[in-house]
Design goal:
Chain lengths: ~450, ~475
């Protein structure tokens, strides 16, 4: 045991006396801090935006409540969009679908920059609306990507390991005294493993040490403890993967230069070439979706509905929403065009849901294909896992789209229910609406 | 003398079997990557054309409709793939692909490729540009880092020096021989691209610029590598510093600088952007609000112009006039706010370009995307042209609404598809690169400065005593 401790002790001397290794590790630590800060800035930015939306909504709600008071007291005339009509009252009920960031976004911004995270929901909304576009950003900056912690971990960690490890065993080979070392009662394998373990431990400890302050700052320990633990396991496995690859390179290597070249080549292959190759193959197999099905609904099929006669629309609505059959209006023998016109969005929503379901299915096929390639694309496997624990991956945003859809459905349900029951909205009812869409 | 040294270096290269094998691997990779790039571009282009035809057919076959209703119906335009997308797709997979052009609003382009799946890569698709930007320079470093130090270690350099060969010429010749190797791989990729691409003059100009940009970058990489090889005592130090520089240039600096420029010139948040536009927009005419004050003013103006007392006496449809006034006011608002964003983009781009003085790789990346027509400048050009088309489309519809024969308030008045078919289709033409070259001056200048600096190092900073 003491001989291994000696190896570790000598390795720490070697490390402390290698200025370029110390500088590299310092630069790496700065990169981690920079990456975490980038994630933390994004976390704060999202929270500030969400807070500002909530505050604007609160102001609007107050204005609406005053308007109801004034209407009830007869101080003002009903505006063009009469708030006592359920349709306009619900229209004027602030309802934003918000995707609050997970504190784990500090460690991986994931795909957060490709999607919007707040959306005003109306009965005419869809999950692929224009206002769900990502935050305004320079496309070239987006293409370059963000230097967040996950980037530092996935791409810079192997580079740091190359700098730390390329001459481990290589220097001895360069100077021709490697064989002398193996005379010292330990095998080449255990000698190399012990030296590699030293850097493995140094690196893992450094990462843990640097992540903890940001975890505390963003509230990870109170809200996402399990996710943080999963992240630590992923970090451990990821470093282990690279250390293992480099161990074999050094074990069979012919010297420092040979090892450095092989290490950097493996890094380029796994970090740039393989992901790029599978990205290209995926693009060939699944061409960019131009959302034609969705566009057809958004335009052609929607207009077909608009062109239907009022009685056809009424029948369609009763067929699609059987609950309306017991409404007050359904018992009437005369047709009320106003009620039908205010209900049309229900029919359009059904079409929108069908189209978006088809798009999601196509994306799922693409995702399945991508997942099948991850065995040969380990870096992106880890990237997606980290994005998943940070709730900033495709699926987190799909869930968000589902929440948007639920909000749209709820709006339509309320419009249909109260319009067909010929309800008049007063302040009390409006407050009920507000409660339904509280975030 | 220099030609003999270059020829001799090439003989050594060719004799080295591993270099021959690696070169073959490179060639095969380039062939397959160029082929895949073209296949992907072809597939995407077909999908885009099919979507475009589908949408146009719907427009051409519209049921008789009120022109203003048609303005709400709108058209969709699909971002075409860039002129040299198969070589470098730049920002294409990040930006949206579908843009709705309709009345009252300037929409944003949506549905990016990146938003349609889980993460697949962080450095983009494997395009020839990936090989030419990352792999080839790395291989050139591997070839050149020991070019002088090996001769130094074996004592061959002393022998050569004793034969009276100028060391500066020797180092320069060695650099050139390795540079020529990179150039051959580059030309090979370009020729393949030419065989599969179009043959327009602009295409040729772009290819020419690409060749020069990459050629300059390879020259910088090779000269610096050879210089380091000559300046350091051993291979290990030379390769360590070279690899560190490569990592710094290609991985680290572009991201750091990219993030920094966004902080120096921040863009508004989407929420504020929309809110401010809404605020400005509310100061103009609201085409759909009959009680709007500004609308009343316009009404008085038209009644006076036509010398009539009421809207029903007007020989035109005042609703169409109001809609166009509403649109024109809106256009000023869009120009102000979108224009402001575009201005910030430009500032960010310029600041990013300046990083080329520290990092020639950034300049190369900018030029590669730019000359392939897949950078932000080309993307903004598409958006601007699409917006101009939207204005033409909506004005045509509003004019028909106003002067097509209907009277004010006749919202049920319709036009048939003969009119809709007469509306021109949006046809995007990529801008000519020669007209846009000023956007890339900083990048070009950076590469030239770096090339001169590298050449200067080789020519004047090689110290005889250090080498020998």
């Amino acid at each position: 045991m003491s001989k291994y401790l000696d190896i570790l002790k000598f390795e720490s001397f070697h490390f402390i006396n290698s200025p370029y290794k110390i500088i590299s590790i310092l630069l790496y630590a700065i990169s981690i801090l920079y990456g975490c800060q980038t994630g933390y800035d994004l976390f704060k930015k999202h929270n500030i935006e969400i807070k500002s939306i909530k505050s604007k909504n609160a102001d609007f709600e107050k204005k609406m409540l005053v308007q109801y008071d004034e209407l009830e007291q007869g101080l003002i005339e009903k505006p063009r969009r009469d708030p006592t009509i359920p349709y306009w009252a619900i229209w004027n009920t602030p309802s934003y679908a918000l995707k609050s960031p997970s504190p784990m976004i500090v460690f991986s911004t994931g795909q957060a920059e490709q999607y919007g995270y707040y959306k005003k929901v109306t009965n005419w909304s869809t999950v692929f609306d224009n206002d769900l576009a990502e935050e305004i950003a320079n496309p070239e900056r987006l293409a370059l990507g963000t230097l967040d912690f996950s980037f530092v971990l996935l791409f810079l960690t192997p580079i740091l390991l190359i700098i730390l490890l390329f001459n481990i065993g290589g220097l001895e080979k360069d100077n021709g005294f490697d064989k002398l070392i193996y005379l010292n009662d330990f095998s080449k394998k255990s000698w190399l493993i012990t030296r590699f373990s030293y850097y493995f431990l140094v690196l893992f400890t450094l990462i843990c040490f640097l992540l903890i302050p940001y975890a505390v700052l963003s509230g990870v320990f109170t809200n996402e403890l399990m996710s943080f633990f999963t992240l630590m396991v992923l970090i451990f496995l990821y470093i282990f993967l690279w250390v293992s690859i480099f161990y074999f390179i050094n074990y069979w290597g012919k010297g420092s230069v040979d090892q450095a070249i092989k290490m950097i080549s493996v890094w380029v292959a796994l970090s740039i070439i393989m992901p790029g190759f599978f990205h290209q193959i995926t693009s060939i197999k699944f061409s960019t979706n131009y959302m034609v099905d969705y566009l057809d609904v958004a335009r052609d099929q929607r207009y077909e509905i608009f062109d239907m006669s009022t009685d056809t629309l009424q029948n369609e609505l009763l067929e699609s929403f059987p609950v309306l059959k017991s409404s007050v209006y359904a018992q009437d023998t005369t047709i009320n065009k106003g009620i039908i016109n205010r209900s049309i969005s229900g029919l359009v929503n059904i079409l929108n849901k069908k189209a978006s379901g088809k798009i999601e299915k196509e994306s799922e096929l693409k995702n399945n294909f991508v997942r099948s390639t991850l065995l040969l694309n380990p870096i992106m496997y880890f990237q997606n896992k980290i994005n998943e624990v940070s709730k900033a991956d495709y699926y987190a945003y799909r869930l968000y789209r589902e929440n948007i859809q639920n909000s749209i459905d709820k709006k339509i349900e309320l419009i249909l229910r109260d319009t067909w029951n010929k309800e008049e909205v007063d302040k009390e009812r409006y407050i009920e609406y507000l409660q339904e869409f509280k975030n | 003398m220099m030609i003999s040294i270059i020829l001799n270096e090439w003989k050594i290269l060719v004799r080295n079997q591993s270099i021959v094998y690696v070169s073959l691997v490179f060639m095969l990779s380039i062939i397959s990557v160029v082929w895949m790039g073209n296949l992907q571009s072809k597939n995407q282009s077909q999908a885009q054309i099919a979507a475009e035809k589908h949408i146009r057919a719907q427009w051409d076959n519209l049921e008789p409709m009120n022109p203003h209703r048609a303005a709400h119906y709108g058209v969709y335009v699909f971002k075409p793939i860039s002129i040299l997308n198969s070589l470098d797709d730049g920002v294409s997979s990040i930006t949206g692909n579908v843009l709705k052009l309709e009345g009252h609003v300037q929409n944003e382009i949506v549905h990016s490729e990146a938003s349609q799946s889980i993460a697949i890569s962080r450095f983009g698709k494997l395009k020839p540009s990936t090989i030419l930007q990352y792999m080839v320079p790395l291989f050139l470093i591997f070839l050149s880092f020991g070019s002088i130090s090996n001769d130094k270690e074996t004592g061959r350099l002393k022998l050569i020096a004793l034969q009276g060969v100028s060391l500066e010429k020797l180092v320069l010749s060695k650099s050139l021989s390795i540079w020529l190797y990179g150039l051959i791989l580059l030309i090979f990729s370009i020729v393949l691209q030419l065989l599969l691409g179009s043959s327009s003059a602009d295409f040729g100009t772009r290819i020419g610029f690409i060749l020069i940009s990459y050629g300059l970058y390879y020259f910088i990489v090779v000269c610096l590598s050879t210089y380091m090889s000559a300046s350091f005592k051993n291979n290990t130090s030379a390769i360590s510093l070279l690899l560190s520089t490569w990592i710094l240039w290609t991985i680290f600096l572009p991201k750091i600088w990219g993030n920094t420029v966004e902080k120096v010139h921040p863009l508004p948040s989407r929420q504020n952007f929309i809110l401010q536009m809404k605020e400005d927009r509310s100061k103009g005419i609201d085409g759909h609000n009959p009680t709007d004050e500004r609308r009343s003013k316009l009404k008085e103006e038209y009644l006076a112009r036509y010398n009539v007392d009421s809207l029903s006496q007007l020989p035109i449809n005042f609703d169409g006039i109001v809609m166009q006034a509403d649109e024109e006011y809106g256009n000023q608002v869009w120009d102000k706010h979108f224009g402001n964003n575009y201005l910030i983009y430009q500032k960010q781009k310029r600041l990013y370009q300046l990083s080329g003085l520290l990092n020639p790789f950034s300049s190369l990346q900018n030029l590669s995307m730019g000359f392939c027509g897949s950078d932000m400048i080309h993307h903004l050009d598409f958006l601007k042209k699409a917006e101009l088309y939207r204005r033409y489309l909506i004005k045509t519809l509003n004019d028909k609404h106003a002067h097509g024969g209907s009277k004010t308030g006749e919202w049920r008045w319709t036009v048939d598809n003969t009119f809709f078919r007469s509306v021109k289709t949006f046809e995007y033409q990529t801008m000519k690169i020669k007209d846009q070259i000023e956007n890339y001056y900083i990048d070009i200048l950076s590469l030239i400065v770096w090339a001169l600096f590298s050449g200067f190092l080789i020519r004047y900073k090689i110290k005889r005593d250090i080498i020998i």
